[in-house]
């Protein structure tokens, strides 16, 4: 995990250390194992999930399935509570995002692009739940990343073709909701189809949200939730981003067949199968952002949480937060100095270049350009799962000296932004936030710390 001592001797070291402590507090607040343990408990022969009880004496078999970057610690929490009551199960996680399990099989698979390991996990999971009867109980754990980690391509579409479609969508600037709408209609497990396969068993779903607005049909592409989207919607999305001519022909053919009714739709709201499905949200980005605010206040900052639903292009979102910070710095804004201005959410990047980075690194790069030579300020953009895009970094941290320091090493920040090439710049500056897998996954966290000439002494946490 992030160590605030790493920032000793760096520019704006005190602010950087405070930012690191705020990030650590946010991640600890959404620990998946603790989140599940808060809502799941065993009392005698009754399993309680929230306020709903399940009689294990009348349950023939209990299995656990699921997927996502946080699925392993979520499954471990169920093993903590249920022990030998668990007959078996399977969860799919991103490579390296593991927790030891004894009764539930753990599969590591590809993310953000699916791979064969994930496809095998999805097929095995479908088979496992199809074997469940009306006296069985299926517990499903879902978190962000589940879409890529549970690929079950529709008939006539290969995994490689689905990977190509996903990659094009992710680079197009489409929102995660739009990406997932298309994914659902190229899948045999997403968009409520896992729930359909599990019927008539009772299905309890524990969800750690990484989606703005916590829409259950969007988290991990909603494998256990009614799908309000349609093939017509999916086709409109690929057309909107100019992808029809670039997608594999099998993908376009499948979407067109579905749009004209030649392929059955995903199960919709009101379908009878969902009467036996009981979802529960166990954590989200708001929990992390609220914990970040508490920590910032304890460190002596006057804090303002702007939103937990930040969306849009990462580079533009950075400018919005910096505009608020500039007002605070000029003593004209909604919060006095020393200030911590926070936002949670999930931005997007329209990839125009061939560089390496992610949305949090792009946010930080745009911020570095906007605050050049502005003293006593630090901006951090952080993916709570510990990975930002296809990199090993969780994000990046910048300050008013970043542009000049980069120039001294031969980097042009504007060119890097134009080519979506943030990672090499921040790597050379040692300004990447490197945590490794955090084993949780809620929305990204963006924070701006504006210091004063003399920061107050931190208050006790």
What spatial form do the alpha-carbon principal axes imply? globular
Distance between the termini: 20 Å
Our count of helices gives 16
Widest sheet: strand ordering = 6-5-4-7-8-9
Beta content? 15-25%
CATH architecture level-2 label of the largest domain: 3-Layer(aba) Sandwich
Total domain units? 2
Low-confidence stretches: 454-461
What fold name goes in the CATH topology slot of the largest domain?
A: glycerate kinase, domain 1
Strand count, sense and closure of the main sheet? Answer: 6 strands, parallel
Write the layout of secondary structure elements.
Elements: H1 13-29, H2 32-39, E1 40-43, E2 46-49, E3 52-55, E4 62-67, H3 71-82, E5 88-94, E6 105-109, H4 116-130, E7 137-143, H5 146-149, H6 159-171, H7 176-184, H8 193-198, E8 202-208, H9 231-240, H10 249-259, E9 277-283, H11 285-298, E10 302-310, H12 314-329, E11 339-345, H13 359-370, E12 377-382, E13 395-399, H14 402-408, H15 413-418, H16 422-429, E14 432-433, E15 444-450
Parallel strand pairs: 4-5, 4-7, 5-6, 7-8, 8-9, 10-11
Antiparallel strand pairs: 1-2, 2-3, 11-15, 12-13, 12-15, 13-14
Helix pairs in contact: 1-11, 2-3, 7-9, 9-10, 12-13
Explain this structure:
This protein is α/β, with parallel strands linked by helices. Helix content is 36%, strand content 19%. It has 2 domains: 4-29 and 286-450, 3-Layer(aba) Sandwich (glycerate kinase, domain 1); 32-152 and 187-229 and 266-283, Rossmann fold, CATH 3.40.50.10180. It has helices spanning 13-29, 32-39, 71-82, 116-130, 146-149, 159-171, 176-184, 193-198, 231-240, 249-259, 285-298, 314-329, 359-370, 402-408, 413-418, 422-429; strands at residues 40-43, 46-49, 52-55, 62-67, 88-94, 105-109, 137-143, 202-208, 277-283, 302-310, 339-345, 377-382, 395-399, 432-433, 444-450. The strands form 3 sheets. A 6-stranded parallel β-sheet has the order 6-5-4-7-8-9, with helices on both faces. A 6-stranded mixed β-sheet has the order 10-11-15-12-13-14, with helices on both faces. Strand 1 (40-43) and strand 2 form a beta hairpin. The model is unreliable at 454-461 (pLDDT under 50).
């Amino acid at each position: 995990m992030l160590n605030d001592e790493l920032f000793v001797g760096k520019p704006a070291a005190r602010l950087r250390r405070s930012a690191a402590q705020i990030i650590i507090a946010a991640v600890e607040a959404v620990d998946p194992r603790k989140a599940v343990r808060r809502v799941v408990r065993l009392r005698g022969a009754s399993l309680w999930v929230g306020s709903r009880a399940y009689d294990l004496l009348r349950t023939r078999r209990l299995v656990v399935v699921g997927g996502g970057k946080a699925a392993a610690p979520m499954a471990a929490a169920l093993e903590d509570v249920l022990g030998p009551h668990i007959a078996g199960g399977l969860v799919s996680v991103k490579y390296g995002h593991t927790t030891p399990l004894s009764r539930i099989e753990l599969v590591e698979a590809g993310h953000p692009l699916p791979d064969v390991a994930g496809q095998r996990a999805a097929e095995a999971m479908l088979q496992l739940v199809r074997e469940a009867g009306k006296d069985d109980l299926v517990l499903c754990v879902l978190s962000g990343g589940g879409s890529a980690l549970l690929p079950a391509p529709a008939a006539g579409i290969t995994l490689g073709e689905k990977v190509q479609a996903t990659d094009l969508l992710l680079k197009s600037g489409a929102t995660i909701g739009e990406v997932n709408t298309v994914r659902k209609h190229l899948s045999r497990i997403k968009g409520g189809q896992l729930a359909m396969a599990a019927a008539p068993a009772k299905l309890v779903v524990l969800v750690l949200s990484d989606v703005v607005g916590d829409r259950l049909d969007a988290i991990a592409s909603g494998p256990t939730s009614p799908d309000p989207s349609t093939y017509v919607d999916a086709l409109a999305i690929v057309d909107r981003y100019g992808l029809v001519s670039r997608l594999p022909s099998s993908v376009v053919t499948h979407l067109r067949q579905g749009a004209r009714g030649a392929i059955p739709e995903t199960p919709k709201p009101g379908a009878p199968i969902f009467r036996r499905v009981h979802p529960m949200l166990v954590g989200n980005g708001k929990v992390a952002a609220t914990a970040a605010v508490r920590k910032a206040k304890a460190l002596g900052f006057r804090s303002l949480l702007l939103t937990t639903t930040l969306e849009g292009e990462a580079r533009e979102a950075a400018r919005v937060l910096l505009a608020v910070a500039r007002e605070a710095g000029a003593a004209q804004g909604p919060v006095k100095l020393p200030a911590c201005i926070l936002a949670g959410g999930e931005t997007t990047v329209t990839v125009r270049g061939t560089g390496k980075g992610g949305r949090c690194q792009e946010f930080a790069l745009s911020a570095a350009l906007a605050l050049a030579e502005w003293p006593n300020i630090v901006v951090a953009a952080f993916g709570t799962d510990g990975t930002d895009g296809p990199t090993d970094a969780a994000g990046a941290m910048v300050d008013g000296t970043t542009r000049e320091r980069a120039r001294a090493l031969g980097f042009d920040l504007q060119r890097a932004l134009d080519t979506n090439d943030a990672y090499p710049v921040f790597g050379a500056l040692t300004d990447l936030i490197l945590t490794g897998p955090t084993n949780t996954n809620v929305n990204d966290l963006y924070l701006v710390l504006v210091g004063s000439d003399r920061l107050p002494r931190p208050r006790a946490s």
